[in-house]
Amino acid sequence: MQVERRSRPDRVKAIAVNAGLGLLETAGREAAAAFLEDAGVPLPVIARVLSEPDRRRAEDLR
Prior knowledge:
Oligomer: single chain
Strand content: under 5%
């Protein structure tokens, strides 16, 4: 069984994810995805945070 990690060790990416979630609300999914990709966030993480709000980490904007 795989243990799900609940904290993000990379603070820079954590900040990028929160900024991307803010962008999702103001500019839409495409703009948020492009921003996160440019920030170096891995594609599986981008897909999760933009498409599955129930699976976001507690520190992510909700």
